[in-house]
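Follow-up to my post from last week.
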Amino acid sequence: MSDGATPSGPGSETLLFLTDEQLRKGIEAMFFAYRGFTADPDRILEEQGYGRAHHRAVHFIHRCQGTTVNNLLSILGVTKQSLNRVLRTLIDDGLVESRVGLRDKRERNLYLTEKGANLERKLSDAQRERMRAAFRAAGPEAVSGFRQVLEAMMDPELRRHYQAVREGMS
Amino acid sequence: MSDGATPSGPGSETLLFLTDEQLRKGIEAMFFAYRGFTADPDRILEEQGYGRAHHRAVHFIHRCQGTTVNNLLSILGVTKQSLNRVLRTLIDDGLVESRVGLRDKRERNLYLTEKGANLERKLSDAQRERMRAAFRAAGPEAVSGFRQVLEAMMDPELRRHYQAVREGMS
DNA sequence: ACTTTATGTCAGCCTTGTTGACATTCCAAG
DNA sequence: CTTGGAATGTCAACAAGGCTGACATAAAGT
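User reply:
Got it. Predicted complex:
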């Protein structure tokens, strides 16, 4: 009787009949939910004159302190020129520190400064708060399903980044 | 033992303990999954010289044939100038037809032409295919949870648009 | 008649994608 | 050792698609 719609009894998890209407509903759910997902950080960012691109950079530099520009590029999926512009303003504004690589001097290792860590916390607090409320409202079973579907929707290459819990700077 | 993490037995759905790490995982799941979600349509759109904005317009005009510009604005959450640019190119290219309203001649009712419907089908086929694969891989329970969490994550005003299955042109 | 509403349009700005050109650094083959 | 190619990061310029503000038009409503 779940909303996932099976035509008949148990064991049909692998033979799911999915109508176009159910799939459209899923598509619009992603569209509308993503707007909510980004709404709170967007407001904070605007106050400080930053955009979503800065948020992404700050988030992943926080998650992988000391990561290289190249690694960030493969996570974010933009061109290095595009990332560089964002990174430069963050560095100029003293939110991110860029240290020349020790082993390979072509690389730059990226770190959040205290100021950068403050912004990151402010942003992720807001975003976590919305996620927490949604998780609470939906319950633990739903949270598990949510994660399963999203994971199955990722491109395989991005799924690797998602699953790499803390690969450090590699 | 679900990944939603409850500290103890049954009945704790309303007292969920959610670690920052679990919430971060949910946040990144949204980020990476949304990229996959838009990847296939983006490729098709690029071939034809359109962007994501055109996709959104075409999608919701298809869903609500005969809708007005104003209704589209409230769904998409952009300015009329921004929507108008997109709409104008779609009309000029013969994908969308704009008819003067019958009751209220100030309004324009928007319809997909056959050419527009063809593009819409091509885009939504691709997107549905990815959604279908993800739903199949995750199973019906997961699909239900996915929808519950996403719905809880929306802003209330957008949730109305989501739930309005076919409000037509109102 | 006057106001409000719905829509369209022009001009200009900002963010954030893109490509192309270029500097620096490293490494490996000669 | 040197030299050429690959990897890395920076600068410049352009395009899409957001935004605001100003203004025109037509149709409703009062």
